[in-house]
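Checklist before submission:
- one chain only
- standard amino acids only
- sequence pasted in full

Submission:
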Amino acid sequence: MNRDEDKRTGLDRKISQPQGKHRHRALRGLNAADGPAISVGRMTGRSDPGIAWAGQVRDASTDSHRLGDMLDRLRKLASKADTVSLGDVVEALGNRSYGPFLILLPLIDISPVGAVPGLPTLLAVLIILVAGQLLLGRKHLWLPGFVQRRSISAGRVAKAIEKIRPFAKRMDRWFHGRMPMLTSGPFVRVAAGAIILMALTVPPLELLPLATTAPMGAIAAFGLALLVRDGLLMVAAILLAVAAVAVGLSLI
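Returned file contents:
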């Protein structure tokens, strides 16, 4: 009888104490219900990137590569002040700042404003500044103080965001992280090098009407590929870069 009772007692203990993975899930559920997460990594000596530890809150928005999420962060930024500076935008976007600037600067050149003499060369210099930091592996974009202080009213930012949002939804639907390995590691530096080479072709091409459109269009494609982390779009950008160089050489 004693032996049977011991067996039943041992079985009851196993049932009452969740083991292994189930016990870990129980701890996670307790953390979520009771408040700040308990640092299980400190108890086990290991860290789990999928769990937010005490004093180390994981921000899911920083891992997202959807344009809609980026616009939400800018909308939140615009709601906190009367004006929004470029420095504020860089700080809000963090390591996602490279893509938007590599899209915006070429689009300014492609627009009618790009016909202003000297502006394409100035934009090319700024592009080289941005791409150079990407080539060096900087996590966050640095801009000169006079550029960071450039600001716009929060109301205009909010209106621009609402106009861009339908386009961003289509982009998120079309480009959704295909072949992401082509948008990280050494491929980012390859893209940065290609962007710098194309930007260097802009000053001589500025002497010819609309000649800077080809390299600037390819640079914008690289910026979009880096922003949405779409490797297939990165391949398309490389092909556009080759075509842009060929067109530039034929015009010079």
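Reviewer check: The mean pLDDT is 75.
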